[in-house]
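Lab notebook: predicted structure, single chain.

Context: the supervisor wants predicted structures on file for every construct in the current expression panel, including those that have not yet been purified. This is the next one on the list. No modifications to the sequence; it matches the entry in the shared construct table.
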Amino acid sequence: MNDSGPAESPAASAEEKDPNEEVGELVGRLVQADELEGGERRRLLGRLTKALADGGRKAGASGVGRGRWLADVFLNIAPRIPIRDLATLSEHHHGLTGEQLADDLVRTAQKATMTVGAIGGALAAAEFAAPPLLLSAPAQLVAETIVVAAVEVKLLAELHAVYGIDVPGTGTQRAVAFAAAWSKQRGIDPLAPASVTLALGAATKTALRNRLMRTLGRHLTTLGPFLTGAVAGGMLNRAATKKLGEAVRADLRIKRPALPRPAGSAEIEG
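Prediction complete. Output recorded below exactly as produced.
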């Protein structure tokens, strides 16, 4: 009797674990690229792929056309993306401030999305050579899409901190607002209340879904033989992240002069 209880407990716990919670935890670890070795990153991406595939099946989603489900998953994990404040950012980037810190943030994000793209492309390329496993490749690309989107939302949010733009609201409200801004590839105007309070509107959800599906479509080019997928995935992600960083920074430079500077915020070098 005593032996049966402990043996069943872990299985029961695994069955009861919220799949969204697992996805959120895995994405949170994957976006902190500097703290992961290559092997650990691959292992986590593999676990995320399985979790997303399981979640998609339970939700009744099929193929790569699961746009609504994909957006719902991302909105659920957005509040779990680790966002650093200005002091922590400067500390983690060797004391840099202002435009130099923003430069470093973009470079780091480019490296992270390029690495994820290379891993995802390599996984897809390996499966391309094994037809029986090809059916699972879309789930891998969904996992890559989620992680790349999370890295870019993190970058966008932290650029707001660097430029001294405070986004009001609860943690969840701010996370959704940053996800909405990512879908539009621009910064948030905190002087426009609708930019945060209406972030969960139908139009925003549609924009987020469309952006995620465009990102997923880009990753479909990684589904090729040998190393072509890895090279394409890495380079396409790097270029897209660089473009996002440039667009958001240009937008924030326009918004910043109209805002009162928070006490203790770093001066942006012009």
